[in-house]
Amino acid sequence: QVQLVESGGGLVQAGGSLRLSCAASGRTFNNYAMGWFRQAPGKEREFVAAVNWSGSTTYYADSVKGRFTISRDNAKNTVSLQMNSLKPEDTAVYYCAADRDPGYCSSYGCRRVIQYEYWGQGTQVTVSS
Question: Cβ distance 55 to 34 under 8 Å?
């Protein structure tokens, strides 16, 4: 059974930092792009960041570029999201996801919810002003 489990969410003041982690089990995702998405109440799920299978290429939403960093450790089957300079508008449930297909994931494809087959249960991030 494939599982993605997020951790590291919580409550933080504006300007603070959090580090989210996603642990995969049930299979290896070393050949698959991984992504982070978020969903705020009443809004659609939106792309945050993605990393290609090797970790050599990353993509970010404009709203988080320069503040968030995605990384992966294929030896541990994990992907992380370092979030700095957090803003109240970053408040959302954050989801980890694994690409539907192995190999290359384009800048366009990696930003699409439909690109991903496996999803975690989400972790809440709340940024207070």
Answer: no
Read off the pLDDT of residues 12-40 as tens digits, 9 standing for 90 and up: 999 999 999 999 999 889 999 999 999 99
Q: In 1-129, at which residue ranges do the beta strands (DSSP E only) sit? A: 3-7, 10-13, 18-25, 34-39, 46-51, 58-60, 68-73, 78-83, 92-99, 116-119, 123-128
Burial of 105 (0-12, 13-18, 19+ CB in 10 A): buried
Neighbours of 129 (CB within 10 A): 9
Tell me 89's DSSP state.
G
Burial of 73 (0-12, 13-18, 19+ CB in 10 A): exposed
For residues 96-125, average pLDDT = 95
Length of the chain: 129
Is pLDDT at 53 greater than 90 in this prediction?
yes
